[in-house]
Design brief:
The protein is of the alpha/beta class and 376 residues long. The protein has 13 helices and ten strands. The protein has two domains: 1-77, no CATH class; 118-372, P-loop containing nucleotide triphosphate hydrolases (Rossmann fold), CATH 3.40.50.300. The strands form two sheets. It has a six-stranded mixed sheet, sandwiched between helices. The protein has a four-stranded antiparallel sheet with strand order 1-2-3-4, covered by helices on one side.
Length: 376
């Protein structure tokens, strides 16, 4: 591998490979400068997405620590002493560094007992939460505006299993007034519901004036899940696909603000999240029989997803595609889409409400991608 096969990280002198190393276990590796003329490569990860800057830095630190232990065991003294100027004790620079050090230690606590990657990911979450809170404040303003004007809002959260719908809903509603929103996640239809008009069980949960209803999966079950698993007939599927655009157009004509979000997860990331559900005791409750079949039925779901986006994307009720492999960025983008759907008062225009083009994807771009390669 040569220099062109590596890219810079946010850490000086540390690089990570763009391609898997042909001999180092065919893994994506970290590379750093050990001395002026010597570079070291450290064994990394099977997947390039797993080798983040922080994890590459962790590999580096672990390797340096192993060198330090080895050096002590061999009692090898350095050939050359480097004269490094250290701040004099009680100097202004020394006192400033000490103050910063003490402050960081007070925040991190007994950080040496925590795995470095876990610590770094935890710190990153602090920054992510701080960024998100600015937009969560805007959601409260939006909710106040809906209540004041009596407007009604419906938000649909759709996507494959483990695409991040539930996490996005939790972040979106975290600080909202619970009296003016509700989250609906319907289970299997009852015998009574099976004999009703298909949309009736959803209409029962529609918002009143000033209320927001968030559907964790919606009537679009009939566009993807039901036909793939044989829970509806081909005739029922076709009727739904023909009727849903007019149904949604009528909702919008009745002054309901309708936002349709589709969380698009890659096959590789979905598999990774399923594995986490299988092995993590805190997440095992999430794993279902349907999840176990999702990877095997990937192509079938892709075909139905393609038809759904193509036939049910309309001017009055458009789809918003959110790439969801990066959970934080997907949640941020979903919140921005919702905020941009309402012209509420006192908007903080200092915030960036523009869509992130690599996360918020147009339907046409998504369909074009799917025609070429079925990886989303």
């Amino acid at each position: 591998m040569n220099l062109n096969d590596f890219e810079k990280t946010s850490f000086i002198g540390l690089y990570k490979s763009k391609i898997a190393h042909p001999t180092f276990g065919k893994k994506y590796i970290a590379r750093f400068q050990l001395s002026k003329k010597r570079y070291m490569k450290v064994l990394g990860y099977d997947k390039v997405d797993n080798l983040t800057d922080m994890k590459a830095y962790s590999l580096l630190e672990n390797y340096k620590n192993s060198l330090s232990v080895h050096t002590k065991e061999q009692k090898v003294s350095p050939k050359k002493t480097i004269d490094v100027k250290e701040p004099q004790e009680n100097s202004q620079e020394y006192l400033k560094l000490k103050e910063e050090n003490d402050f960081l230690k007070s925040l991190l606590g007994n950080y040496k007992t925590v795995d470095l990657v876990t610590l770094q990911e935890g710190i990153q979450k602090v920054y992510d939460n701080a960024q998100m809170q600015e937009y969560q404040i805007e959601l409260i303003k939006m909710q106040d505006y809906l209540e004041k004007t009596g407007k009604k809002m419906i938000i649909l959260f759709e996507g494959r299993d483990a695409s991040g719908k539930g996490g996005a809903i939790r972040r979106m509603t975290r600080y909202m007034n619970a009296r003016h929103y509700k989250v609906i996640a319907l289970g299997k239809p009852t015998e009574t519901q099976k004999g009703q008009w298909f949309f009736q069980k959803y209409i029962e949960h529609f918002p009143t004036g000033g209320q927001t209803v968030l559907f964790d999966r919606s009537w679009y079950n009939r566009a993807m899940v039901e036909p793939v698993f044989g829970f509806c007939t081909d005739h029922q599927y076709e009727i739904f696909m023909e009727d849903v655009v007019n149904f949604e157009r009528d909702l919008v004509r009745q002054d309901i603000i309708l936002v349709k979000l589709y969380f698009s997860v890659s096959k590789e990331e979905q598999q990774k999240r399923f594995e986490s559900r299988r092995t993590n005791p805190l997440k095992q409750w999430k794993l279902s029989e349907v999840d176990l079949q999702a990877q095997d039925l990937w192509d079938e779901f892709s075909e139905k997803k393609y038809e759904m986006l193509k036939r049910t994307h309309s001017k009055s009720a458009p789809w918003n595609i959110v790439r969801s492999d990066d959970k934080h960025r997907a949640r941020m983008e979903a919140i921005k889409i919702v905020l941009n759907s309402v012209d509420y008062e006192d908007r903080n225009y200092a915030l960036n409400f523009e869509p992130a083009e690599n996360i918020n994807i147009s339907v046409q771009k998504e369909l074009t991608r799917m025609r070429k390669k079925r990886d989303y």
